[in-house]
Structures are given as structure tokens and as C-alpha cells.
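Notebook entry, structure prediction.
Reason for the run: the old model in the group folder had no record of what sequence produced it. Starting over properly, with the input documented here first.
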Amino acid sequence: MVKFILPEEVLPLRSLMLRNGKPLAECVFEGDSSYDTFHLGYYADDEIKSVATFMRNDFFPDEGEGYQLRGMATHPDEGGKGFGAALISFAIEYLKEYNTAYLWCNARSSAAGFYKKLGFVNMSPEFDIPGIGFHYEMKLNLNHNI
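New structure, fully documented this time:
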């Protein structure tokens, strides 16, 4: 089940999966507490199994209002169960209600196939985020998706 969660609730999975176990305080993103940021968690067995953060960010300014998907992480024991896809599907429907034009992310190269299956399109050559790894800019137009 997908639920809106508090910013601090995303931190344990961010630390575990995206920041090599760094202290939670080092896993906070600028904008986590902004009024137009929201966080989603996928619950199973009364525990958060997957998280994602969505921040207002018009990265493609000529294409309307955009949101950035950041910090998506699923517990290593729960991968491949559709939890991450459920979070994105929920966010898409939510963002469409507010006429958001697109959702974009810096997708880890290893996760690009996952995003492509959900309809995201690669918008850049592969690039390195120092200390984090290789990524692609990927975008999903929301006004053309179901």
C-alpha cells in the first residue's frame, strides 16, 4: 500500500541503498521539507519497503511544470516485487491532478531499464555524479500517459 510519509521516514532506506550506510543526517536532500515536496512509502507487513521523494523542479523549463523523482530506494530483500513501480504510478496520478507536465529523474545507469519500462525516455548521455555513480537524465511526459 502506498502512503504519503514524512521526510525523515525516507532516510533509513536512502542511507542503506543510496548512500552506502552513511548517517541519516547525511542523507537529507536540500528541499526535503519544502512545501511542494512530497514523499511516498510502500508499506507491506506494516513496514516501509520502498520510498521515493518528489520535488518541484522545472528542469526542462520550456515544457511546463515539472517534478523531479529523487531518492528512490527499495529494501534489498524486496526488489522485483513492483513496490517502486507502485510508488511511481501513484505519484503520476497525483501529479496529473495538479496538471504537472512531466516527471524527471537522474536515473542510476543500473536502473535505466526499470524507468524505461514505466515510459521514461532517456534525455542525456551517461554522466557521473561523483561519489554516487553513473546516471542518465530521464523524463516522463505526464499529459500523454495513462
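Summary: The radius of gyration is 14 Å.
The old model has been moved to the deprecated folder.
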